[in-house]
Design brief:
With about 140 residues, the protein is of the alpha+beta class. It is built from 3 helices and 5 strands.
Length: about 140
């Protein structure tokens, strides 16, 4: 990278199309970051980033009224996805249950994440997830 940070922040309305908008903006951010800063970004990293964005924005939309803030930032060999919403309740990953229909989003995120952090903010909460930019074995080593 050329020393300038690659980052992007967007406010989402929290309505129906915001999940698709967030996915498209995440993919566009990675394309632009690669063009302007030249970090290596695998196709798998782009797809996993879109998956993480989709799950985090879906949860924010489902559990918190109002707008959602999404920030993306290249940090070394990862892209950090942060999603803020107005609900202060921190998410808790549920025990695996193949019979459960739905509510697997956090499990999915943690399975593909290089890092994971959930923290309360003065208003609401912020979930931050790191996704490796390169295809590397041993993903799923998220630290809470």
């Amino acid at each position: 990278m050329d020393g300038r940070p690659a980052h992007f922040t967007v406010a989402l309305a929290g309505d129906g199309p915001c999940i698709a908008q967030a996915r498209h903006k995440a993919a566009a951010f990675l394309v632009q970051a690669r063009a302007e800063h030249d970090p290596p970004v695998s196709q798998r990293a782009t797809e996993l980033t879109q998956l993480v964005v989709s799950e985090l924005v879906t949860n924010a939309r489902k559990y918190a009224p109002g707008p959602i803030l999404m920030a993306l930032r290249i940090t070394g060999e990862a892209v950090e996805v942060s999603v803020w919403d107005s609900d202060p309740v921190l998410p808790v990953a549920r025990a695996a249950d193949v019979g459960r229909v739905g509510q697997h989003g956090l499990e999915i995120v943690m399975a593909v994440a290089q890092s994971f952090e959930a923290r309360r903010e003065p208003v609401g909460k912020r979930i931050s997830v790191g996704v490796a930019l390169l295809d590397t074995p041993g993903l799923g080593s998220a630290a809470a």
